[in-house]
Amino acid sequence: ETYYYVAIENVIVGDDVLPIASSAWNIDVNGNGGTVIDSGTTLTYFLEPTYQIILAAFERAISYPRAPPTASLDLCYNVSTIPNPQFPKFSIKFRGNAMFRPPVANYFLTPQENLRCLSFMNNPSPYGMSVLGNL
Predict the structure, then answer these.
(1) In terms of pTM, does the model score above 0.90?
(2) Which of 3, 40, 78, 131 has the most CB atoms in a 10 Å sphere around its CB?
(3) b/e map 63-99, b = 16+ CB within 10 Å
(4) Residues of the chain with pLDDT under 50
(5) How far apart are CA 20 and CA 50, in angstroms?
(6) What is the DSSP letter of 53?
(7) Are 50 and 130 in contact (CB under 8 A)?
(8) Helix (H) or strand (E) holding 58
């Protein structure tokens, strides 16, 4: 299989550059790790501990009532009492200063009425890679 690898420098939630070690994005000597773009993958998957760092940043930035995980999505919010819910911006800075800023609707999904869930998933495999899906 052929993958399209990208070089991530930073991940930003709101205005916060997250404290993710640059080594988290590297491919190791066995060919594990790194980050690929795969428009055929519906969601986005991050390796540990990157996933937990990103999840925690969204948790800190959002004060809406939490909802139980839904549709395998870990971070969900009940927005039934919020007329126009707003969520933090998410950006990825790639090597060469290219910035990727997807629309909020691409990473906060609505699996049910009055529910918004972060569309990022954990890839717990030590042999895997992070996958930027169809954001």
Answers:
(1) yes
(2) 131
(3) ebeebeeeeebbbbbbbeeeeebebbebbbbeeeeee
(4) none
(5) 6
(6) H
(7) yes
(8) helix 50-61
Which tokens hold the place of 52? 């937990």
Backbone angles phi, psi at 107, to 5 degrees: -125, -5
Residue carrying structure tokens 């990825």: 92
C-alpha distances in angstroms, 42 versus 13, 37, 61, 62, 66? Answer: 21, 11, 25, 24, 24
ω before 49 within 30° of 0 (cis)?
A: yes
> Token pair for residue 10?
């930073």
Closest CA relative to residue 26, chosen from 81, 80, 95: 95
Strand partners, 5: 36
Q: Rounded to an integer, what distance in angstroms lies between the CA atom of residue 112 and that of residue 71?
A: 10
Strand order through the sheet with 108-109 = 66-67, 76-78, 115-118, 108-109
**pLDDT for res 134:** 87
- Distance separating alpha carbons of residues 94 and 6, to the nearest angstrom: 7
As given in the structure block, the two tokens for residue 85 are 């819910």
